[in-house]
């Protein structure tokens, strides 16, 4: 991934946190016939310092048959348009153009499959709990009839990847002048929920300088 202008983020803990917050990613696996791409929800874990990703696909999805093939998992985070009007420098020389702010993380590795009822059950519980625990009345897998869940598990295949390489990119105008960074922050704060997330990411860069 091209990462200029001090946009590279490589801290595993930071990247795990971001992937867990995003929760949804594209699994990309090249093969002799082309490229297989599946869009999937993921569980993100730290296991003894290693980043582990878990997901599942429908058994009818041929992607699981590419087990052991080098793959990438792309977590696309918040993104927003950046207007030239955000920059105070626009009034000085006009030498500004639109751009796009975004956060993205790539995880590289090879996945293995798992099929046992116990392993799939643990995975589905973890995935569900990750998103339900914030609700006032969380739903759990145990709320559904046991035979119903058992039948559903027979129709899926679990995928597990021990990540070999992680790379992140925060493109939030952190390379701009302090004045244009402030303008970017203020502009993004008015650009909806994703803009606010990007503005906060930019503020974190400024805080460390």
From TrEMBL:
Pfam families: FMN_bind_2. InterPro entries: Split_barrel_FMN-bd, TR_PAI2-type. This is Negative transcriptional regulator, PaiB family. It comes from Celeribacter neptunius.
